[in-house]
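Translate sequence into structure tokens.
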Amino acid sequence: MRVILASSSPRRHELLTMIGIAHDVVPAAIDESLVPGEAPIAYAERLAREKAVAVAAHAGDAVVIAADTVVVVDDVVLGKPRDEQEAAEMLCLLSNRSHIVHTAVAVRHRELERSAVESPVVTFRPLETGRIDSYIATGEPMDKAGAYGIQGYGATLVSKIEGDYFAVMGLPLHRLILLLENVGVEYRFAGLRVRGVA
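Result follows.
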């Protein structure tokens, strides 16, 4: 069974590989603009679904997996920083407080599509200016929502996670498996199969 990951995220690719799901990577080209008045959780789920639909249109019988992650603090969505100054501003905002990471995942197979959102709460330790500057100097914050990556150096900024760690990384694996089952695809440790077909 062909599986397509509709994302260019190295983290999502690594997570699928980690659980034995062989896949091709075909990033979706969609407009990711926030609709005025749109709630962050609805925004994340809409983008995941739109990515799945866009890639599935050219995917034949493949299973398409798409996801989107948004970091939210004070009801403001923090995207990827445009430059180092914006990264520093985001990290200062996150310092010594909690924020929500909404990660939506969508699965499409044939005409069936299912999606869901996991919303873990992440708490940062207090971050002094020197630590923020040295973290930005690693380059890690520059391509990540909220200007940090939980799976890298950014792990040292976090004091607590309440919820799904893998959702913070960008792909909630337990939710993904449930959604696959909902579209008739069974997960086995050696890969995926259509339900009832060896």
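Note: The chain has a mean pLDDT of 93.
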